[in-house]
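Course exercise 7: structure representation. Students receive a sequence record and must write out the corresponding structure in token form. The form below is the worked example handed out in class, using SGNH/GDSL hydrolase family protein (311 residues). Read each field label carefully; the graders check that inputs and outputs are placed in the correct fields and that the protein name is recorded exactly as given.

STUDENT ID: A-19
EXERCISE PROTEIN: SGNH/GDSL hydrolase family protein
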Amino acid sequence: MRPALLLAAVALAASGCSADGASSDDAGQGALPDVVVDTEVTTTIDYVAMGDSFSAGPFIGTMRTDPEGCARSKDNYPAFLADWLDVASYTDVTCSAATTADLYAPMTMFNGGTTTPQIDAVSADTDLVTIGIGGNDFGIYDSLITCQEPGVSVCPVDQLDTDARKVAGRIEQAVRRITKVAPDAQVYVVGYPDILPTEGTCAAVGASAEVLGPVTDVAGLLNASLRKGAEAAGASYVDMEAVSKGHDVCAKGRAWVNGPRFRAGVAAPFHPKINGMRAVATEVFRQVTGDDPEVTEYAEPDPDVVVLNQS
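STUDENT ANSWER:
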């Protein structure tokens, strides 16, 4: 999520470095076609994944190269979801550092290349859309991470609160534009998991619990804004904040997110690890099917049905 941290991580990768649930009502949406939990049967679902680095999964395992400047993992939650749903087609246009503006316009990636607008992946044939975005708007998440670093005595919490509230309108607009192109699609807006602890602190976090409290409040407000925007436009909201409690960066072996160090093959700083991606995919799967998935160690969507996103 944090552009400065990811930029350094992309540079390292380019130089040769290898690098559990809440539900919501599906307001205004019909059933997905032929959803089958048995993974031996391919469904007729055409799936498009949109979003930022919390969806793309920078530096988890192997990075995809379509395009490589998005730092998109082969084991992000869209890949797990496509695998477990056995979709008929799967297009992943998630891209690290994306904002809601990048849904509608070409985005300049870390390597200087450009992507097509993410919404271009959606068509009248699209049945399922997941979208996890908004934290990069106004630099919200970048500021939240900066605010918890050692030596930071002032954090613009009031401005961050204001900015987080603005995201609701942007998400509502995004969902409405998606459903205008794909009127029969179910749209799931995926919230952000807890990255920082809601109580206490730890060595992985630079700030005291007193300083950290207002910072985590902003993160909660951002998720509330995502929910508000999703529901206003008739989309479902996937509440990852609710299910990720106790899995933040201070949770040690139970953490779903990486700490402050860039760890090639594991995750970018303060980003979900592969277990966090499985957790998101599990929660979305539950909402789509009403059942639990057969969780796999790695994501292996059928290569015959994967539609690659080209820059």
